[in-house]
Amino acid sequence: MNYLNESIDQLHQNLVHQKLSAKELATNTLDNIKKTDDKFNSFISLNENAPKEAEAITEFDTPLAGIPIAVKDNIVTTEMKTTAASRMLENFVSVYDATVVSKLKDQKAVIIGKPNLDEFAMGSSTETSYFGVSKNPWDHTKVPGGSSGGSATAVASGQVVAALGSDTGGSIRQPSAFTGIFGIKPTYGRVSRWGLIAFSSSLDQIGVMTKRVKDAAYVLNAISGHDERDSTSSMREVPDFTKALNKDVKGLKIAVPKEYFEIGVSDEVKRVVNEAIKVYEENGAIVEEVSLPHTKYVIPTYYLIASSEASSNLQRFDGIRYGFRASDVKSLADVYVKTRSEGFGDEVKRRIMLGTFSLSAGTYDAYFKKAAQLRTLIKQDFDRLFEKYDLVMGPTAPTTAFGIDAKNDDPMTMYANDILTISANMAGIPAASIPAGLASDNMPVGLQIMAQRFDEEAIFNAASFYEDYSKFYEKVPSEMEDK
Amino acid sequence: MISKEEIAHVAALSRLKFSEEELEMFTPQMDDIIAMAGQLQEVDTTDVVPTNLIVDEVNVFRNDEVEKMQTREELLKNVPETKDGLIRVPSIIDKEDDNQ
């Protein structure tokens, strides 16, 4: 079955009233994915055992009971391999489940498959995946964005109703914008990272991608909360996010940074996003132009911090205890060098190299430390805004989805694409992308909504308002139309 | 301008090795990226405290309790080469070192 016109509420009702069983739902979901995935390449692995697992679910006493959910393939699962889309982990099967996976299972959700991503979540298009690029359901010649591009494609094409993604510099929001779905990166610390293959530990956060805003609230309810195994996960109470969908924007104070309409942002993106923000204003929100003066420095700041942390995190891939090991090696040093040189793709190597460079004696102060200081200034820009405003809004990405291979030759143009999403990770604040409308190229444009730390409720409220107004979820992606 | 030799040095530190052809490709790319990173020098950060992590809790404590998680067998499941329940690796000491 296809989920284009489904919601978790509706599916739940069908399950409760025995219009279909959890087993049928899992079977139909797998069948449809197999039928459509040649076209989209959303998944790296599927859980063939899902129908059997679902058969055991007979009581639908939680909203997610029996609902098939996709889990980005950098989040470890015991039923299926976890590859991080790398040759390095091509056949890796975890011996434990990530906390978010255990939490979904506690709610009786069914883990249906592992969507594609950029290798180790490093990229903005899924083109760095060892398993090939995923295709945008609005135009198969275009990328779905990244790194959570497989999750985005799976949701936007109706293969699943919900998918988990991870977001280090925009990896949930940018693909959500490119494929016309809702995606939320919660506050740093809201969701445990235990079992998420680490890229940049101070920036990584797991989040949710769905067509409908309420569906994301259900899934975020399930995965949030403190975890003993992740000491950076917050001890704060987790509210019921489904109660925050009040569509109430009267008196809401919205800051719109002027820098988010400057650097490299296309006219069409500006137009569609401005029109969306105007709808808030017409319905009683107070919209004011503000400045985030350090925006022009976020790309170098991000690439230094994230790559430095990555170069350290990826040291563990040495060919000894798990993963790929190069053959024909004579010494231990050879195992390390040959395994890593053959196991990692080019983009991962570039980041390891940049990180190693920036952390080296002689360059540390000028690069890594300087970037960490810039991070303070970027965060302070936001702190100042949130003294006066409830939300910050702007575009999610500077352009609509670009063509496959269009930016592959030049890492710098690819990096520039992250300029509007990085800051939320830098400041540790929650941020979401909601479809604002279609641009003249008939591709979706994302409206980004950012809030103070731990105020995801403000995002859900504002997003539910615009969803209700635009009803974008009724639009069928062009590649899905019967031809 | 960063040189091919400098890139090869960083590669060695990263336990990566590049062919001559790959070095030709990586060096200008890394040069561009490092030049971009250089833009940060124009910002005055005197007395700005670096931010490395944004969390509420400063220290997190837990009881030091033994917890059974995985068996030896499970933990060895992903090891590329094992022997007698141990991880097998190529010889660590070179033959020449042996003779010294």
TrEMBL record, chain A:
UniProt KW keywords: ATP-binding, Ligase, Nucleotide-binding, Protein biosynthesis, Transferase
Catalytic residues (positions): 72, 147, 171
Domain of life according to the entry: Bacteria
Amidase domain residues: 25-459
UniProt KW Transferase keyword: yes
Catalytic activity: L-glutamyl-tRNA(Gln) + L-glutamine + ATP + H2O = L-glutaminyl-tRNA(Gln) + L-glutamate + ADP + phosphate + H(+)
Keyword match Acetylation: no
Listed GO CC annotations: glutamyl-tRNA(Gln) amidotransferase complex
Molecular function terms from GO: ATP binding; glutaminyl-tRNA synthase (glutamine-hydrolyzing) activity; transferase activity
Subunit and partners: Heterotrimer of A, B and C subunits.
Protein name (record): Glutamyl-tRNA(Gln) amidotransferase subunit A
Gene that this sequence comes from: gatA
From TrEMBL, chain B:
This protein's record includes keyword ATP-binding: yes
Gene Ontology biological-process entries: glutaminyl-tRNAGln biosynthesis via transamidation; regulation of translational fidelity; translation
Keyword field: ATP-binding, Ligase, Nucleotide-binding, Protein biosynthesis
Catalytic function, reaction form: L-glutamyl-tRNA(Gln) + L-glutamine + ATP + H2O = L-glutaminyl-tRNA(Gln) + L-glutamate + ADP + phosphate + H(+); L-aspartyl-tRNA(Asn) + L-glutamine + ATP + H2O = L-asparaginyl-tRNA(Asn) + L-glutamate + ADP + phosphate + 2 H(+)
Function (record text): Allows the formation of correctly charged Asn-tRNA(Asn) or Gln-tRNA(Gln) through the transamidation of misacylated Asp-tRNA(Asn) or Glu-tRNA(Gln) in organisms which lack either or both of asparaginyl-tRNA or glutaminyl-tRNA synthetases. The reaction takes place in the presence of glutamine and ATP through an activated phospho-Asp-tRNA(Asn) or phospho-Glu-tRNA(Gln).
NCBIfam families: gatC (TIGR00135)
Family indicated by similarity: Belongs to the GatC family.
Name recorded for this polypeptide: Aspartyl/glutamyl-tRNA(Asn/Gln) amidotransferase subunit C
Record gene name: gatC
